[in-house]
Amino acid sequence: xxxxxxxxxxxxxxxxxxxxxxxxxxxxxxxxxxxxxxxxxxxxxxxxxxxxxxxxxxxxxxxxxxxxxxxxxxxxxxxxxxxxxxxxxxxxxxxxxxxxxxxxxxxxxxxxxxxxxxxxxxxxxxxxxxxxxxxxxxxxxxxxxxxxxxxxxxxxxxxxxxxxxxxxxxxxxxxxxxxxxxxxxxxxxxxxxxxxxxxxxxxxxxxxxxxxxxxxxxxxxxxxxxxxxxxxxxxxxxxxxxxxxxxxxxxxxxxxxxxxxxxxxxxxxxxxxxxxxxxxxxxxxxxxxxxxxxxxxxxxxxxxxxxxxxxxxxxxxxxxxxxxxxxxxxxxxxxxxxxxxxx
Length: 343
What we know:
Elements: E1 5-9, H1 17-26, H2 28-33, E2 36-38, H3 55-70, E3 77-81, H4 96-106, E4 111-118, H5 121-134, H6 141-146, H7 155-166, E5 171-175, H8 176-182, H9 186-194, H10 216-225, H11 234-244, H12 256-277, H13 280-287, H14 300-318, H15 325-341
Parallel strand pairs: 1-3, 1-4, 2-3, 4-5
Helix pairs in contact: 4-7, 7-12, 8-13, 11-14, 12-13
């Protein structure tokens, strides 16, 4: 009897996973008609930071997964998607082998095809730092980098972890940078073609509704004030700042020397993974020369005026909202930050 196929999209982080998952959720009916069932994987949260196999947790997850599969039509294949499947990005995916082994146990008995998107490491590190600030961290970029040497982000090592469990031919690798630069829809097109779906007119491709990026100035502001925001208000603060001070422009934190060091350290590994798993065009995206960051220092006065502008936009956005949370957050800004810092 032919095995049921399980398509496993494991991210990685900061490669458009949320947008793809929104499309999967909103296109479920059409996917079902094409013999595909997208299953939610809340259990991925239990795996991401595991450093060793937890048989008790895995047994529970496998039972839940098999129950989900049993509720799908017999001839339909399965899709699961979670960047958490790739491991903990804040440790450079050092636990990828544990995640690969865990996924192998959970999907035992199925024909598993994995899809991984990789982002060039300098851009990945900067985006990961931005995400940490969105989530409430308040460290500087240099503090962030001090505990994360660039050699941690070895994509060839990451992919090998999954190939050892599932086989080289079962692990498909793509360049996120290539599809991001090609067009707004090319990432979705590649992803759904991998699943065997060719009529993208039936696939939802609207703007993703989460992970809106702060502007560079708003990100710096959030870093300064996160420690003053009560944990219960952090989500409301993030939402208000995203909506009132968003930007699609990439945030560049690495200096030119740091960027060159990161890519030089990982160049040999990137060459190997590019040769093994990427086509020529995608390989060029992974190996091309980095962007150069211009110096953009501001005086203390200019910085403070910019922060005041950010808060003014925040107030304008939130003053019409019925929730009391924005008012509590602004009160925190005023008493704990502005009065303390104003000169």
